[in-house]
Amino acid sequence: MDLFEPIKLAFLSLRTNKVRSFLTMLGIIIGVSSVILLVSIGTGLQEYITTQFESLGANTIYIMPGKVDLKNMHLAGQSMMATSKLETTDVPDILRGSTVITEVSPAVAGSGIINYKGKTIVTETAGVWENYFSIQNFEAASGDLILQSDVERSRKVVVLGDKPAADLFGDSDPVGQWVTLGGVRYQVKGRLVSKGGGGAMGANVDDHAFIPYTTALRQFNISKPQMIVIKVTDQTAVDEATADVKRVLLRRLKEDDFTVMQQKELLSTITQFLSVITVALGGIAAISLLVGGIGIMNIMLVSVTERTREIGLRKAVGATPRDILMQFLIEAVILSLFGGIIGISLGMLGSLALNSVVKTYVSLWSVLMASGFSALIGIIFGVAPAYRASKLDPIEALRYE
Predict the structure, then answer these.
(1) Which residues of 240-258 are buried (b: 16+ CB within 10 A; e: fewer)?
(2) 222 and 279 within one domain
(3) Among 255, 226, 394, 246, residue whose Cα is nearest residue 314
């Protein structure tokens, strides 16, 4: 018997039992769509964060207090909580100590609760020098950015990122309005141009508010910078600038007192971390594919029992065990493939729907993995019932009631 005949018989059998066939495929459909959807969320998050880092410039260096081990992500968060031994006076020293460093700004962070006419939002608030915005490639959409005079006179002015400005003022221009930040009144001096950060997950560079550095020191009751941000002439000079920074700071600090982090190191570490999460999400979703495969095996075993007389009749008229094996194996594979196709379609539609809330990206490898896995499931879990059917004795099968 050629291959076309068992395929035709398999489709005929599945069409005869439409409801059972659909319920059998349901496990594969759910599994494949879950794999694609969860992996698309993880991959989208990687793409989103990569874009955000690139928008801040690859020629940026960060100095953090304490020792940060980039290979151990759980230690990275301890840096901001470490007792800072950095000083504001380190800024001019660093600038003088390198020929490839163009700008340096200290930064501190604190309470981000902002109120305006009954509206309350929580955003990340940072105290910075006037040059911080050029270091991070921020531009004003309206109003002005923080000036050197604002820092020198500790003025209570705030520059809002696009998101907090939109949350508080909508489409209205916030410049000149007064808001309450951490219980203190500030006048809105400017609104930043959006860098495209609209995701609900991951860091959002648009979700910040900035106040003068000296004002922040008083507001947050601190005396030392929690971070120093550095701009280098170009990306090729980052390693040289890193060495210069370490040389300058080691004149008065120990190696464990600070960590110099390059943008590319941060991005690489976060990307590796998110890759692990993405694979883990895909693995968790793949468990449902395994469950779907077991469902196919169970239904096919029931089908063999129900069709015992049919198998006996086919063997009596000349069908070989190989023919019977192929027929049932093809049925299992067809169930898996069609379930995989439907699951891929639903997963891509779900990813498209979620894209308005969370950045998602359907990668080719996730589609190939899900479809390949679904086909493999059909083969693996279809072997047992197909083999059982092929070994039935035709005489005993014809007697079966």
Answers:
(1) ebbebbeebbeeebeeebb
(2) no
(3) 394
Place of tokens 């039935």: 392
Q: Which of 224, 252, 280 is the last residue of a domain?
A: 252
Q: How many separate domains does the chain show?
A: 2
Residue 206 lies in a domain: yes
pLDDT tens-digit profile of 162-221? Answer: 999 999 999 899 999 999 998 899 999 999 998 765 433 335 678 899 999 999 999 988
- Angle formed at CA 206 by CA 201 and CA 211, multiple of 5 degrees: 125
Q: 65 lies in a domain? A: no
Residue in the structure block whose two tokens are 């196709």: 341
How many angstroms from the chain centroid is the CA of residue 148?
38
Q: Which domain holds residue 368?
A: 4-50+271-399
Q: What is the pLDDT of residues 44-65, one digit of tens each?
A: 877 777 666 655 566 888 898 8
In-domain check, residue 138: yes
Of 228 and 321, more confident: 228
Q: Taking the model in full, what pTM does it have?
A: 0.58
